């Protein structure tokens, strides 16, 4: 046992999760008090963001950090281990959750104050943050369960038949993915005798490579379902359009990105030899996801379902980085996860504002919104360009890194060249899908559409909140150097995790 007291500064590693869990419990108890839940949620979220900014600064200055619970030395205790990717993703998740809570008030009535919405939002954030910060695979499973419970509660909030239908599709596929993940954990523990991530890296090279590859394939299936990669992606457009727009935005920004992050962590850092064997499969999945998803967006007339296919297309870009697995490719995949947390949340929130103004979910019933709300049209158009990867917006830079990695990898085999073509095709098709939606919603003659609702104070507040998030996306696109440099450093730590092992305290054991 470890009798050394934990430094006060090290509590920053777990404070974001603790604050989210405590906040969820507190807001559940005061949910009947008028305005208290939303004020409490904002205060807790500001506290979480402050902790995560401090944590990110420490990781930038000192490298990966770790804290193991219960005074048990690794690999026996549950470890929280933070590197640049996990700290940046956790911060981005908290920021977009804050924006979602502000925007959600635009669509909530006074009678909605007893539905525990804010408590479930904080519980969902606790699961997402725990998944990003954990250093133990079984603990990752626990946080997936926390996310699933909270998201299931949020998706059925309101209880209309469409939401129940979406919840069944969402719940069944995600329960199946979680079950597959648990099965993979059992097999991995039986093979290696550990589920601590740092310890897995230490002992995996001596294990049976065929057995490890089978487990890696099972993890790919489980996390691929969570991330909505092709061909296990049908649940996302069938479910994400059913809850309130703010809930859809939270799901689109966070849930699939946790699945993509789990793929990045498990296949690149923990089981790199198995990833090498699965590279052709990863490449084919990436290409299929990149091409099929925007085609689905072009074919859709339901606005939120169409945007759901755009979310899926982004997962294809992340998978292409996993397929290439060079420092540039992994940096591109990681930065893409970061930008997708911001841009997909903002895109869904903008869609919610469009639905509030038009009173419709089908683009065939929309039109004339450009004249009524030019700022809303600009927000939507900028986010379409960012999703397609058009310079100088934030989505361009990770795709540029992925293209560079693909061109460099094309000299070694077919994977790099095919992924380069697929990434370019995805950008073109996403741009076609997005501009088609924009023209139907904003540019088409208003006489063909439903009457537009007036923009009240709440809608203006929500539009301003989304505008701030979009400004951040534009600013990061215009000044990408810190993000690119951070992504390259984080990718180096994934590919050569000596600093990660040292932070956990297993570097000496490895030697």
Tally of domains: 2
The assembly state of the depicted protein chains is single chain
In the sheet with the most strands, the strands line up as 1-2
**Ends distance:** 21 Å
Largest sheet data: 2 strands, antiparallel
Whole-angstrom Rg = 22 Å
Q: What is the count of DSSP helices, taking H or I runs of 4+ residues?
A: 22
Low-confidence spans: pLDDT under 50, at least 5 residues? none
Strand content: under 5%
Which structural class fits the helix and strand makeup?
mainly alpha
GO molecular function, one term: NADH dehydrogenase (ubiquinone) activity
Protein name: NADH:quinone oxidoreductase/Mrp antiporter transmembrane domain-containing protein
Membrane topology: Multi-pass membrane protein
Pfam families: Proton_antipo_M
Could you give a quick summary of the protein structure above?
With 511 residues, the protein is mainly α. It has helices at 15-29, 36-62, 84-104, 117-133, 137-155, 161-192, 197-203, 209-227, 235-239, 245-270, 272-277, 279-299, 303-324, 327-358, 369-372, 374-388, 396-409, 414-443, 457-478, 481-495, 498-504, 507-510; strands spanning 65-68, 79-82.
